[in-house]
Design goal:
The complex is a heterodimer. By secondary structure, chain A is mainly alpha-helical. Chain A contains 3 helices and no strands. In chain A, helix 1 runs antiparallel to helix 2 and helix 2 packs antiparallel against helix 3. The model of chain A has no long low-confidence stretch (mean pLDDT 89). Chain B is mainly alpha-helical. In chain B, a hairpin with a 2-residue loop joins strand 1 and strand 2. The model of chain B has no long low-confidence stretch (mean pLDDT 86). In chain B, strands 1-2 form a two-stranded antiparallel ribbon. In chain B, helix 3 runs antiparallel to helix 19 and helix 15 runs antiparallel to helix 17. Chain B starts with 6 loop residues before the first helix and ends with a helix. Chain B contains 26 helices and 2 strands. Classes of the chains: A mainly alpha, B mainly alpha. At the A-B interface, helix 1 of A face helix 26 of B.
Amino acid sequence: MMEIPLEHGLILAIALFLLGLTGLLIRRNIVFMLLSIEIMLNAAGLAFVLGGARWALPDGQVMFLFILAMTAAEVSVGLALILKIFQKYRTLDTDEMDKMRE
Amino acid sequence: MLNYLWLLPVLPLLGFVILAAAGKGTSKSLVAWVGAGSVGVSGLIAIGIAITFFAAPPEGMAFRQTLWTWMKAGNFEVDMALYLDALSLAFVLVITFVGFLIHLYSVEFMREEEGYHRFFAYMNLFIGTMLLLVLADNLVLLYLGWEGVGLCSYLLIGFWYSKPENGYAAQKAFIMTRVGDTALAIALFLLFTHFGTLAITELSAAAGQEEEAPFFWIAALLLLGAAGKSAQLPLQTWLPDAMAGPSPVSALIHAATMVTAGVYLLARMHVFMELSPVIMALTASCGALTLLLAAASALVQTDIKKVLAYSTMSQVGYMFLALGVGAWSAAIFHFFTHAFFKALLFLGAGVLIHALGHERNLFKMGGLRERMPLTFWTFTAGAAALAALPLLSAGFYSKDQVLWYAWSSTAGSPWLWGAGWIGAFLTALYTTRMLLLAFFGESRTNPQWTPGWRVTLPLLILAFLSLTAGFLDMPHTLAEVDLFADWQHRVLPAVATAAEVSVQEYVLQLVSGVTVLLGIYLGYLFFLKYPAWAEAVTRRWLPVRLWWYQGWGFDWLYDRLLVKPYEWVAKINREDVVDDLNQGFIATGRALYRLLISTQSGQLRWYAFGIGLGALIIITVILLA
């Protein structure tokens, strides 16, 4: 089996992370912002797995499992919040919600 | 018995706690039992301790009782420790004995007053802190007592607080004495810096070896502290106003005990005073000047209590004069007799004022001799002692000692004796004036009150002591009795008499004795036989009379020198320069807040951007560093 160099994997992880960050910053729809965060978390998970593979340790995979579990929890809470927000504001545009600071 | 020493201050303090906790509804007899009882038991224990002390003197003629370590920080250690020797024993006996008599008197005297329990709570607190002051083993504990009696003095002068002028008088007393207290505190700091301890015996022992310490400043600051508490020049103006308090308070605090705390302090720290002859001379001059000024002021007062206040100031002046010439035991002896006769005079004046419906003006009294015979006779005994009536009264023996040493001590001089001599004449004159105006002449008022046994018994006991306490220490020309001096010389050094004194002791005694009789006779002529003379003199010297009446204008002077400039500075600094700094802080904080609040936009994506930017900066720093 052909070894994939670590650098390639890391570049992919960075690209994924930046994609997610860009999405988070430019999208105004809160559902898409949540999606972007998921992408960033997956980029981080990928970096863990790559590290684990590079040094032949199970820790990277274990960390990824943790991230998965955490993400699942986060999504459930996040979606519940989004539902409440939509009920209150009748919109999903975050810029419309800037009165929440008060 | 000596081991019960700690009970002396604790019992009155306990009484204070109980009375302070008691509410308005507490029965008056219970308050009286607790208030007077705690001091009475304390007095009995004091007598027991005194008997033990004389019968089986403790080692080194001093007894120390360490209760616990009060505070400790580095090499600074203060014990809660009591120290009893001949000097503190003399004060303890006077405080508890005279204190108890005054409490007994107050039980009846204050009966009708609002705040009966408050009065006894303060009085008990006073006795407790005063005992702490004189029993303190170290200067910190002494300072605690010193401030405690100052607080009680403030509270009791302002006892009738519903009248604003009483409150002002209390504040004046508190603030004036605070000047002296500050000086005393600085003296303590100096002592600790140079000797590393504040225990009095250790300090006295170490003083001789040390040469570098600023003895001049220590002695000067001690003197200023003592002058504040004892109403001597230049801090004397609070005492006449302190008469706003009830009469028993004046008797206890402003005559018998608290005002003599300065005398106690200087006698206790005599080692340091002796190391600084300039300050000793200053003490003597300060006392001589005060006794003259106060005696002159007493001569023209119309308020009976103010006459007594000025006479107290004058008598404490005699004590300072004695301290200044190194006659320590003479000063303490004068304190001892003065406590009896001045307490008696204040209590007697209290009876008069009460019986005449709060009338204090001497010129509205008169002719009370037959209406109030018991008060008259006891008051006369006190007045005789105050005027130092030769041979018969206690005041004569103690004052005679002071006068003799003022001349014959190595630090003394004919000038100091002269001041005391003129003072003795003035004292006889104003005492006679007070007595004649109050009790002789035509009757102008009708006394409304016949005092009961609780009032008359203290008067009788004090009158007896005013006549006899002097026999403890007779002048050598009359008899070889010096019990008191022997007793005190175990603690205090004897007077260094000059090798050759140009006059014989009996000549001076004769001169001062005749002067006193002359003063009394002149008083009789001026104020009873030919009152027109007094009026003529008064009319002729009206400005001088007013000047003396105002206490030589010291209030006016201090008002111009200190109060007015202060008010002026306060006025021009209305906007408060110092406050600008604080306002500056507030303005800067507010500007920063405005700056930061603009970042709180509520835009979720801006926050995400901020987090991302922050993470980027941190990572960059980590990578580059």
